[in-house]
Design goal:
The chain is α/β, with parallel strands linked by helices and 414 residues long. It is built from 20 helices and ten strands. It folds into three domains: 4-63, no CATH class; 74-244, 3-Layer(aba) Sandwich (Rossmann fold); 293-413, Tetratricopeptide repeat domain (Serine Threonine Protein Phosphatase 5, Tetratricopeptide repeat).
Length: 414
């Protein structure tokens, strides 16, 4: 009996993770690997897993994406450290600013925040950073505070020297004084956080998680974010997640940084985040909207061609936040950046999201752009050796653009 369909349902129900084509492949890959390690057939392994007769943690770790790196959302973090923390401490002297980093992976995000806090002169008694992640394996790694060169890519040498101890094997270990700011816990957000976390966080980072969730789980997560956020707090989401309807939050854009704050009234219109935010007057940077979405996209692709990926990514993010009708195009741009940076799984996820907009309410991608998204997915699956899945994406790619260069690889490999 093939238990895979039941397992996919189980993953959605148990973890709240949406089963897209790419993570279905991940699930199957994890099953094959772990069944082999346990000397079981894939079916027997799946059955044991679903009936809780084996350790579920290795499976959970394998079916989630843990890509992160230091100073990933530097502009947002610097805004928090230089603008929000001083304001909070001035209003509430003697209190500690609690920052929550949800889906913190191996700790790159909370440690980055801690390093910036340290550089700004804050102490661990003034700022406490709490990192949580579903994967207990990630949390264990986070606690070791030991990272590869890949995790600190793009970070300037002086910053590395201040906050890490580099060893001869190329590993970077966090300085003890940085660790003092941070504590980690493995937990499912939002299911376990509900009973384990107290509300009142003035700052919450929830980046690159929401778009993995099923619709009901997303609604639960938003409710939980509303519960956890301090009434005047700031929530930071990644661009792709910012596009979701978020009843009860309003979008603010200040000093080139996007954030969400609890709205006093419900609901906040979603399709026009800039207009919605304008109702909140002084929070909105009045320069928003000066450039059209098409202009921003054009600039983003120019930066991409010059290989200025952070600048290009920033512009695509801006489009995601401010121009809902252009979200699919911005997601495709972000996918291309990830693909060029060697982050194939992230690229595939974003390409899938860009294509998902095809059936939505907006004129999403042109045929050429849809072909590009299919090529990213097909090439990733092909690279992972998942040939039957790759084949169906190559077929779709050919329908959109028979001249796309990736078709050649398909013909050669079949
Ligand atoms: C792509 S990483 C994001 C890392 C970091 N926030 C960033 O943006 O760089 C996604 C993380 O979400 C975690 N995750 C997935 N589902 C989760 C859940 N329901 N609760 C908490 N963490 C979850 C995964 O284990 C993974 O480490």
């Amino acid at each position: 009996m093939n238990h895979l369909p039941a397992l996919l349902d189980w993953v959605e129900a148990r973890l709240g993770l949406q089963m897209t084509a790419s993570n279905q492949e991940n699930v199957w890959f994890a099953v094959q690997t772990l069944a082999k390690q346990a000397h079981l057939s894939p079916d027997d392994y799946m059955q044991q897993l679903m009936y809780n007769q084996c350790d579920q943690e290795p499976f959970i770790h394998r079916v989630t994406v843990h890509e992160s790196y230091f100073l990933r959302s530097r502009a947002q973090m610097e805004y928090v450290v230089k603008q929000l923390i001083p304001g909070f401490l001035q209003r509430r002297p003697g209190e500690t600013v609690r920052i929550l980093s949800i889906a913190c992976a191996q700790g790159e995000e909370p440690y980055s925040l801690a390093m910036l806090c340290k550089d700004a002169g804050w102490s661990a008694s003034q700022v406490e950073i709490h990192g949580i992640d579903l994967s207990a394996e990630c949390i264990e790694l986070a606690r070791t505070g030991c990272f590869t060169r890949h995790a600190v890519r793009g970070v300037e040498e002086s910053f590395l020297r201040r906050h890490f101890i580099a060893d001869s094997s190329g590993r970077f270990t966090i300085q003890a004084s940085v660790r003092d700011f941070v504590r980690f816990e493995a937990m499912h957000f939002p299911r376990e956080s509900l009973s384990r976390l107290l509300p009142g966080y003035p700052v919450i980072f929830c980046q690159n998680l929401l778009f993995y969730l099923t619709k009901p789980e997303l609604l639960r997560a938003l409710e939980e974010l509303r519960r956890l956020l301090y009434p005047e707090g700031w929530l930071y989401l990644d661009g792709a997640s910012s596009a979701f309807p978020k009843t009860g939050f309003c979008h603010v854009h200040k000093e080139n940084v996007h954030a969400f704050r609890l709205a006093a009234t419900l609901p906040v219109p979603v399709a026009k985040p800039v207009k919605a935010a304008r109702k909140w007057g002084q929070e909105v940077d009045q320069t928003v909207g000066k450039k059209s979405g098409d202009q921003l996209l054009h600039m983003a692709w120019q930066k991409f061609r010059l290989k200025q990926f952070p600048q290009s990514d920033h512009l695509f993010e801006q489009v995601l936040h401010e121009y809902p009708a252009l979200q699919a195009k911005a997601l495709l741009g972000k996918a291309r950046i990830q693909a060029d940076e060697g982050q194939q799984m992230q690229a595939m996820e974003l390409a899938e999201k860009a294509l998902a907009h095809q059936d939505g309410q907006y004129a999403a991608l042109t045929r050429m752009e849809a072909a590009e998204a299919c090529a990213i997915i097909a090439l990733t699956l092909h690279g992972k050796g998942l040939l039957p899945a790759a084949r169906s994406w190559f077929a779709l790619l050919k329908q959109f653009n028979p001249q796309h260069p990736a078709n050649k690889l398909f013909q050669e490999s079949s």
